[in-house]
Specification:
The chain is an alpha+beta fold and 171 residues long. The chain is 23% helix and 19% strand.
Length: 171
């Protein structure tokens, strides 16, 4: 469990990273820092003119930690917002849940504001996880594909409807 001094250092690192945010479109600068294996990994949000390609600070910080070999994150800090602190978005909560235990502390604050303390589990109860996507393995037949919602097996093609095809219509 991270100490209070670790969480304060993490929050300061997130505030420093926020200063480098690339947010020319929204002007919503965010910094995040994660604690993994005793090391702090901090990053900022990076926007793109094609807005869905923008990347949140939290996901950038997780990516930095993973690129340095981390597989578990012990704590998270986020600095963003103006009049009230901005908590991690839904997508970031899901990514954080991939690498954090439900009890991992999360603190978030706006610059100069009072931090809010919570946990990953409180931010994303009953998180979807890798356990939910593991394939079913049949003992003697290897990997078995799971049926999709339509009831069809993935990869199986539907037959063409009866009638002339566009190639034989003379067009």
């Amino acid at each position: 469990m991270p100490r209070a001094s670790d969480l304060r250092r993490l929050l300061r690192a997130a505030a420093r990273a926020r200063e480098f945010a690339y947010a020319p479109y929204s002007r919503f600068a965010v910094g995040a820092a994660v604690l993994a294996g005793g090391r702090i990994h901090a990053a900022c949000n990076v926007e793109n003119g094609s807005f869905p390609l923008s990347v949140c600070a939290e996901r950038n910080a997780v990516g930095m930690a993973v690129a340095r070999g981390a597989r578990r994150i012990d704590a998270v800090a986020v600095v963003g917002g103006t009049s009230r602190p901005a908590s991690p978005c839904g997508g970031c909560r899901q990514v954080l849940a991939e690498f954090c235990d439900a009890s991992a502390p999360v603190i978030y604050a706006c610059p100069g504001g009072r931090p809010v303390s919570t946990t990953i589990g409180a931010l994303l109860p009953d998180a979807f996880s890798g356990q939910d996507v593991k394939e079913v393995v049949a003992p003697s037949k290897g990997i078995r594909r799971q049926q999709g919602r339509s009831g069809r097996r993935p990869g199986k093609r539907r037959s063409e409807p009866p009638g002339p095809s566009s190639r034989s219509s003379g067009r």
